[in-house]
Amino acid sequence: MDVEITIFSDLPFEKTTSWGPAGLHRIDNGMYRKWGNLTFQRYSNLFRDIGGTTGIQKLSGNILSEDIEKLRLQERNYGDIVYDFHFLSPRELLQFNSERTNLSGIHFTAFTTEGRKYVPWMTERLKGLGVHFIQRHVLNVLELINEGFDVVVNCAGIRGGEVADDGDSVNVYPIRGVLFQVDAPWQKQFLYEDFTTFTIPTIESVYMGTVKEINGMSTQVSPEEREAVRQKYIKLQPAFKNVSIISEWVGFRPSRDPIRLEAIPFNNDLIIHNYGHGGNGFTLSWGCALEVVELIKNHFN
Ligand SMILES: Cc1cc2nc3c(=O)[nH]c(=O)nc-3n(C[C@H](O)[C@H](O)[C@H](O)COP(=O)(O)OP(=O)(O)OC[C@H]3O[C@@H](n4cnc5c(N)ncnc54)[C@H](O)[C@@H]3O)c2cc1C
């Protein structure tokens, strides 16, 4: 298919959600296994063929929990997609916190896709293929249809409902998160307890997090919040008591249950909504993009 593509964004990249995360590959909802699997294969290929200049890093690590059911759910969602997935043996668990007898854990190898490196890399690649990038606010999808675009793909994240302009904005909500870039270059594996207390090393940085505040809107990190995240992590890995924070970031996971990936024909044209990826946007991105391509092909064939 010979197509001309224009990407509109009203914010500088540094102000978008995709700038901040470490982007660990981990599927929260088994409904999205197909998209997560396709994306994993893409990152695996990019890491093999091009390497870290893409912002992608191959990374192993562990997730601990006192609730083994949560870990079994991880196994069902992506145990056969990532590499080296296994439940930790009692001996392996001893490396974390020897005083807790009720802890279970999983180990796996996946990829991080650090937004601030991956998105600029993709942008340059797309520019090389002739894609146009324009910084401009778009009121809604119909504005672009009326300008003569045959297909409009709405990937407006937290403002996806607003841009759809069909009443869906009530279904989109933020889950606020904070990430701290910390000075611990010796940390070479990710480590989670449940899904809010973690460190994730990327190519040059180590990120510590987080909170999951539904409908939270504050763009600031309070001193209490900073200390609470730090103390929770120190309990998990005491070595972090001497680690300093280099920078901090607040982001809003663009959430919708379920994700909206839907084609809506409009006369001879096509509107596709692709938003609401919550805390899994990097994990699902390529799989969703491939589905968008299928929807376009089906419409025009
Ligand atoms: C703390 C935190 C940790 C995370 N960790 C992970 C992780 O480990 N793994 C993972 O896979 N995901 C993670 N995520 C989730 C991931 O960051 C998001 O799902 C993803 O970045 C969303 O991308 P998006 O393109 O939908 O939205 P965005 O990155 O926000 O992009 C939306 C774009 O739409 C444009 N736009 C919006 N409205 C308009 C308009 N009216 N006109 C023109 N342009 C418009 C904006 O300018 C922007 O360019 C995390 C998120 C947070 C906050």
UniProtKB/TrEMBL annotation:
One of its GO terms (molecular function) is D-amino-acid oxidase activity. Pfam families: DAO. GO terms for biological process: D-amino acid catabolic process. The keyword Oxidoreductase applies. Keywords: FAD, Flavoprotein, Oxidoreductase. InterPro entries: D-amino_acid_oxidase_CS, DAO, FAD-dep_OxRdtase. One of its GO terms (cellular component) is cytoplasm. SUPFAM superfamilies: FAD-linked reductases, C-terminal domain, Nucleotide-binding domain. Residues 18-295 form the FAD dependent oxidoreductase domain. Its cofactor is FAD. Belongs to the DAMOX/DASOX family. This is FAD dependent oxidoreductase domain-containing protein. It comes from Panagrolaimus davidi. The lineage of its organism: Eukaryota, Metazoa, Ecdysozoa, Nematoda, Chromadorea.
